[in-house]
Write a structure and sequence with these properties.
- The structure is a homodimer.
- Chain A has a domain at about 5-135 and about 325-360 and about 410-475: nicotinate phosphoribosyltransferase.
- Chain A is built from 16 helices and 21 strands.
- By secondary structure, chain A is of the alpha/beta class.
- The first copy, chain A, is globular.
- In chain A, the strands form five sheets. Chain A has a seven-stranded antiparallel β-sheet, covered by helices on one side. A six-stranded parallel β-sheet of chain A has the order 7-6-11-10-9-8.
- In chain A, helix 9 (about 205-215) packs parallel to helix 10.
- The interface between A and B is large, with 105 and 105 residues.
- Chains A, B: It is an enzyme of class 6 (ligase).
- Chains A, B: Pathway: Cofactor biosynthesis; NAD(+) biosynthesis; nicotinate D-ribonucleotide from nicotinate: step 1/1.
- Chains A, B: This is Nicotinate phosphoribosyltransferase.
């Protein structure tokens, strides 16, 4: 299975069309961007760049692929030969993986011969849409958990193998601490773990015996699942008994129990009380059962004494808003070595593209908090020596001036003339960077309901070009 | 990448636990079933069995996997050696792929040594949850489209590679006609197709030239995308001009246009009128833009003259309800060659399992309509010679008697002693079977809002065993 074949058929008909009409080498600029934050939130967390680099580094079509495409009787011999020798030759600019991103800014910009840019489209969108969706969701869940441990355990409800494998990777970048999915540990090094299911307990004549057998095999990794028969009257007493009979005599210092059904606030409080009465104040409580950021927030508001959250289907599918809608739009071409901006008009105002080869600047206060982003022409130079005034691109009287500020250019160059020029950070580095980025957001942007709408404005030069093009086309 | 490693860590700790405690060969029965139909619908459409067979046929752990697991320092040498030589040796019973299924009936039953049954769990659930979710969604969308063509085009918004690849497969089983995703055609033979994006049109000096160039290259496969600049004042006139200047002179008889934004009812009606006025009554109209079964139903109620629906993110992620929640529960073990039923109790009544080795019977009227399903002990024999009375397992006074009826046993044996004994149908056969199954449902079960709750009852013998076990544990 060749990932290059994860491609919408129309990319190939267009590519063959460019080839046949002698346009294939025309340089085009495409922006990858999104329009709306997931879950009505205030930001998104960018993930997937490493997967994209893996893809582009290896991108080629083999004989089998060419034979298959030939059988469609839509593509010319010349084009198929071109495809057989395909190698990406363009430039790619991108936000660093783990960056906080906002609607309408170019997260990734591709400058390449049109035929190549088109061939990248589908897979780039798929990877970034998926991983950004899950990383963002994970960051929200971890935020709700207020520093408590969160474990991703959704493999069984994920939308296929890649959804579980790369979903756990993205969730880790977003802040979760571990996964139940072994392959995500093997492939990416996301820490994996897990203990027992109900079936383990059912296999024994009694819950007590099931716990005891497990404790003897895994004295340092026992988390007793309490709700197979009855959490409070059976699960908790048996767990306490086994901790005292098996674990404490072995010198084990850390114990844990898990509740997987019922009212988690009530049961965690009652369990805590029973554990404390038994002198097991250091026994942690894990809960699971269709959790997400809103349920976790509620549990903690109600004072549920929970130490660890196991989060499954609602994280791995981003259930409450399972589509991250990045698009990939032509914003310019080159003619006679000049950049010619391109626009797509729409009756839906938010679907009008912002033309031209652009870059993104992040404006921060002196402590490094993110205050606003500014999109400019790539050729514009900004510096922090003088005050900076930005304005809302729709309601232009809404202005804001920064006097003391820092400025970071968000785009890194990842590929230059088809060569990767960007050093791949480790997953741990990406995760640390993401957590720093999240900490640089104002709490007003992170809150779940009616968050502050972060400013993403256009430079005056860019704004003028865009509005002139709209007028020329529709005026 | 070895699919065997798509496994929750706890499956392996339990498996090692069974190995270490001498229980590994105890025969266990697990049921895979679900509790709630997606989208509040009346049924689900079972998909994924072929993918499961591919998995089990090849299931093994290689040296690299074993090395990785060894590094976790949780598993014994003996267990790792066992895993290195793992081969499935059990029996699997399953509904045929493409079957209509209902909550709480065992869709798949695994009889195997406990250690093996546990190792299958995660991947089985992942595959069946994903593909059944998408097949069911596709069947709803195709139903709303009332016989019109539906094309799956969600690859860019799918939750990863497998979500797009196997999602298109499942959607095809559910009834969609084609996909945009080339790899699903290459791997599974789902028909693929596609024409042009906005970027194609933007690459030319005018929309007219873009359409003309495309028509010359693909005279028999041109679908003109109308909404790059303005659908009615620009897109439609340019499409008509190119059809008349290029396609008709070439003798082409079939033309098509696509609308991808704006009010699809209004624009399709206005487009139809302009096309008809130009004498192009045989030009079909395709629409796309975040469609699902409810939007399609509304468009058709409003009389939108649409021939083809392109459906993206809301199908490939099952956006309105993106989790299919199958579970995998221990229902029996064997002791001294006797089947000993097992139960899991819960305060949530719907989470109490139905114990024992079971089978499922479908009761149909003389025309083959599905009237009810009956779950019995596997050992029970039913025949249609005498009237059959079934009763609701909760409100047992709710009874229904069938006099003239047909009976089909839904389980096929797929694996016997680890050998696959089931002939794999082709994808086309699975799709045809699924469409027959859908046609055997009463419309009352297929409607979207408040569908009839299809009866899934327990045989008297099974009901008695279950209730006795609950009483014994909680009474």
């Amino acid at each position: 299975m060749n990932k290059a074949m994860v491609i919408d058929f129309y990319e190939l008909t267009m590519a063959n069309g460019y080839f046949e009409s002698g346009m294939k080498d025309q340089i085009a600029y495409f922006d990858l961007y999104y329009r709306k934050n997931p879950d009505g939130g205030g930001y998104a967390l960018f993930a997937g760049l490493e997967t994209i680099m893996d893809f582009i580094d290896d991108l080629s079509f083999d004989d089998e692929d060419i034979e298959f495409l030939k059988s469609k009787k839509m593509f010319s011999e010349g084009f198929l030969k071109y495809l057989r020798n395909f190698k990406f030759s363009g430039d790619i600019y991108s936000f660093k993986e783990g960056s906080i991103i906002f609607p309408n800014e170019p997260i990734v910009t591709i400058k390449a011969p049109i035929i190549e840019a088109q061939i990248l489209e589908t897979y780039l969108l798929q990877v970034i849409n998926h991983q950004t969706l899950i990383a963002t969701k994970a960051s929200r869940i971890k935020y709700a958990a207020k520093g408590r441990t969160v474990i991703e355990m959704g493999a069984r409800r994920a939308q296929g193998l890649t959804a579980s494998l790369n979903g756990a990777r993205a969730a880790y970048i977003g802040g979760i601490d571990a996964t139940s999915n072994v392959i995500s540990d093997q492939v990416y090094g996301v820490p994996s773990g897990g203990t027992m299911a109900h079936s383990w307990i059912q296999m024994f004549d009694s819950e007590y015996e099931a716990f005891k057998t497990y404790a003897n095999i895994y004295p340092n990794h026992s988390t007793f699942l309490l709700d197979t028969y009855d959490t409070l009257s059976s699960g908790v007493p048996n767990a306490i008994r086994v901790i005292k009979e098996v674990l404490i005599p072995k010198g084990v210092k850390k114990y844990s129990v898990r509740i997987d059904s019922g009212d988690l606030t009530y049961l965690s409080k009652a369990t805590r009380k029973l554990l404390d009465q038994a002198g097991l104040e250091n026994c942690t409580i894990t809960v699971s059962n269709s959790l997400d950021e809103r349920i976790i927030k509620d549990l903690l508001i109600q004072g549920a004494p929970i130490d660890i959250f196991g989060v499954g289907e609602r994280l791995i599918t981003a259930k409450s808003d399972p589509v991250f809608g990045s698009v990939y739009k032509l914003v310019a071409i080159e003619e006679n070595n000049e950049i010619v901006p391109k626009i797509k008009i729409s009756d839906n105002v938010e679907k009008i593209t912002t033309p031209h080869f652009k870059t993104v600047w992040r404006i921060m206060d002196e402590e490094g908090h993110f205050d606003a982003d500014l999109i400019s022409l790539d050729s514009e130079k900004l510096n922090t020596k003088k005050p900076l005034t930005i304005f809302d691109p729709i309601n232009i009287w809404k202005q804001k001036t920064f006097d003391n500020y820092q400025l970071i250019q968000m785009h890194e160059i990842i590929y230059e003339n088809g060569q990767r020029v960007y050093e791949r950070p480790s997953l741990k580095e990406i995760r640390d960077f993401a957590q720093n980025q999240l900490n640089s957001l104002w709490p007003e942007v992170r809150r779940f309901d009616f968050p502050h709408q972060y400013y993403v404005d256009l430079s005056k030069a860019l704004w003028k070009i865009k509005n002139k093009m709209i007028e020329d086309l529709r005026g």
